[in-house]
Amino acid sequence: MPVIEVSNLHKRYGETVAVDDVSFDVAAGEIFGVLGPNGAGKTTTVECVAGLRVPDGGEVSVLGLDPRRDAARLRQLVGVQLQESQLPDRLRVAEALDLYASFYREPADPARLIDELGLGAKRNTPYDKLSGGQKQRLSIALALVGNPKIAILDELTTGLDPQARRDTWSLIERVRDSGVTIVLVTHFMEEAERLCDRLAVIDSGRVVALDSPAGLVSAVAPEQRIRFRPSTPLDDRLLTELPQVTAVTRSGAQVVVTGTGDVLHAVTSVLARNQIIAADLRLEQATLDDAFVELTGHRLTD
After folding, report:
1. Residue 302 has pLDDT above 60, yes or no
2. Which residue ranges does the record assign to the ABC transporter domain (predicted)?
């Protein structure tokens, strides 16, 4: 049974339609991504889910509760890390966790959470002295201090350097492994591919696709391309007769095989049977970025 159900959600600001008939559901224990460019309606959508905004139409159910009618109960069950979270400069890490813990009936142990999120050495450090990655870890800790069943994380790694971003990704995977369902809002393709079990691709306020990252890619670009240099002369018919192969071309000494399904295994198997070594073998596949372009007509950064 889904822990979040969104049906025909609508939200506008004056004449601007921010969310236009958005529907999706989130299963317990998954990392569900909301992917799209800035201004697509991602944040407004999850704020409606969290009960921070009132939609103009549609229905939202979170853990069987209505975010508007059951807001007080839901705040005990859902942790939220907003896109632009700030704390007072002089507030120390441990003080912030203790303060937020006081808002919940059954909070997590702030000291344990600080250690688990790698902030043990910074527990007495003021907020303005933390690095970008440490501030994001603190934001995650604040979203988790209420022992939530669901955590909503909005643009979690924006502004972080590559290493801090990857460290944060590992942390999110550990949070999911602890049993927390995560809704992750992002405009980073690599982040979505690395973390998300399923994705809702949102563009101009509408869901244009809903699937796993691999499913989105294969739906719009199922073909793969294999490039290699054969160690001995190769009869193209060995490859063209394979059911997984759709085309074989040459580029100088390089053979280029295009196909679908398990084409890599099929090609390497036939080469091995004929004692042909595939030198400099490279597999080229479509990416989530390619899928986004196919679905929306533009790149995420456009």
Report:
1. no
2. 4-229
Dihedral sign, CA of 37, 191, 101, 71? positive
Contact of 197 with 30, CB cutoff 8 Å: yes
Domains of the chain: 2-218 (3.40.50.300), 222-285 (3.30.70.980)
Side chain identity, residue 88: P
3-state secondary structure at position 236: coil
* Long-range Cβ contact pairs of 74-78 (< 8 A, separation 24 or more): 74/50, 75/51, 75/103, 75/146, 76/104, 76/105, 76/106, 76/146, 77/148, 77/149, 77/150, 78/50, 78/51, 78/148, 78/149, 78/150, 78/151, 78/152
Between 158 and 274, where is the model more confident? 274
pTM exceeds 0.70: yes
